[in-house]
Fold this sequence. Notes:
The structure holds two protein chains of two kinds. By secondary structure, chain A is an alpha/beta fold. Chain A has eleven helices and 13 strands.
Amino acid sequence: MPDTAVEAAGLVKRYGNARTGKTALAGLDLTVERGDVFGFLGPNGAGKTTMIRLMLDLIRPTSGSLRVLGSDPRDNAQARGRIGYLAGDFRIDGRQSGGEALTYLGDLRGGVPPTRIAELAERLDLDLTRRISSLSKGNRQKVGVIQAFMHTPELLVLDEPTSGLDPFLQQRFVEMVQEASAGGQTVFMSSHVMSEVQQTCHRVGIIREGELVTVADVGRLRQSAHRRIEIAFAGTVPAEVFQELPGLRNVDVAEASGGGSVLRAIVAGSPDALVKAAARFEVISLLAEEPELEEIFFSFYGQGSHGNGSKGSRS
Amino acid sequence: MSITVFRKYLTDNRRGFLGWALAITAVAAMYSSMWPLMGGNSGLASAINSFPQSMRDAFHLQDYGTAPGYFGSTVFGLLVPILLAVFAVGAGTKAIAGDEEAGTLDLVLAHPVRRTWLAASRWLAVLAAVVVVGVVLLLAELAVRVPAEFTAISPAHLSAMTFQLVLFGCCFASIAFGIGAGTGRRMYAVVGGAYVTVAAYLCDSFLPQINGLHWIQYYSPFYWYLGGEPLKNGIQWMHCALLVGLGLVFAAAGIWGFNRRDLSQGS
């Protein structure tokens, strides 16, 4: 198909009035091709959810243009029929069973075969007969995953979809996204989980303060495996030793509260030089973890550190 | 309108709706069954007749000694319409504003449902619930009519009264629904609905007693409901039209606003 899945040009969204209002999107330009799996990343409050809610016509743009699956989302129920949407904090009336809820939502889409719902439920290990109010947050999120996938939509819009799922289910979810992608479905996904983005997305876009900072290929990202490391030493270590090392960024050596010192840094590529340098001192503990994806990006593009704003009502 | 949404809304809320229907009916039946005590009690009737005229007007106590008079002032006079208004305002508020503040409206509207259809379907579902309350109430009243000795009121007149009661409830449901759909705020819908209920009652009972303010009752939905004394005179079509009209204005404005505004994400 020739047209794009998502196309935003100069998209602006302001909430509230001119005096107290807040700009959530400040002229966003973004194109997602059909068949793409697009990761949408950014700190809390950057405008990710705003963009997603605009795509579903839950809110309307202040200015600029937005086209989803080739048409304007405004009052476009027909286009929403071709989208599957999952919110990060998926919320649904608890006074019904999962099966009842999914049947109803399927009926709104003109009917989804019960076998399809049952198959997905089995795959995610969800009991459809239980009342939703009695389900754990993770199980409730499964209902959300099923309703987004069950009609095999052309476009999946997923807003931090695995926030409530345990690692096993996150893996299941990744498989489902991969299958959707293999079947030609387009996926637009905001996420904080590095591994999930690496496993599913072809491209990622970084949004900051309502503007698209950059779009990059995930393949390139994978090669530069960044790790955040933290090493505790028994004694005091000179920071210069580590600052000189290649592939080490954001080096910080601090006094530990119980004596000794702690090194914190981000390692790009092989940690070999760092390990050899650290071996000269007495090491008490060593911690290496994957930093959040946008953190890598900002260190990558020299955008400085970003605020760790609390999750607002809109982000 | 979407039948799927309409049916789902009624099934999801069936317990609450039936609970209110039974509660309101129980209150009405209780009052009704006291009629033999009150009606035959000439002492009570003369005591009430000695109240000041304006007080009797305010409480609709004009002819407490007759069945239509007693029923107009007690069963249908205060508690039942007020309870129904409370139910209607609550149900009308919940239909859009309550769902939106709970954060559960996003999900449904991310589906291929037009906003106007969703709102209209839920509005009609709430009205259907009010009708159910009326039907249950009418059946109970018809059932106790002979045992409770108020055969002086014909079934036709009882039905006329209940019909206007239902329209009265639908009017308040539509007011709260409209405010809630238009603003997305539960608080506005509840306060708006309660304000109109209280204002309607005062404009029909106490305010007209003030010199020069007698005309104010003609603007009160409460007067449109009860002022024409349907228990004696049957359905008052002009009053019915006013109740329907006011409800339609609020519901239509609410749906129009709902279709234009941003949805909130809930909290």
